[in-house]
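During the no-cost extension, the postdoctoral fellow (Dr. R.K.) reprocessed legacy sequence entries with the updated structure-token encoder. One reprocessed record is reproduced below for audit purposes.
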Amino acid sequence: MDLKIKEKTISLIDSLKSTCQTYGMGNDGNEYKIITQVFLYKYLNDKFGYEIKKLDKRIASAEKWEIAYSELS
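Re-encoded structure tokens follow.
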């Protein structure tokens, strides 16, 4: 596994845990649910972006694919 990706993932988890702690959900079952849902959303968003880039060359060549996708009719 790429060390940079692992470090970024751990940093993201730590910041999510810190946010949960700030709002009183630290060391709670809801903390686990929030972190799991964020990662699921991120995975699905990345997967959608990957697949849509294979279908449309304009989206694939765009600097930000989300903007190019939103401009489609």
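The radius of gyration is 16 Å. The chain has one domain: 3-70. The remaining legacy entries will be reprocessed before the final report is submitted.
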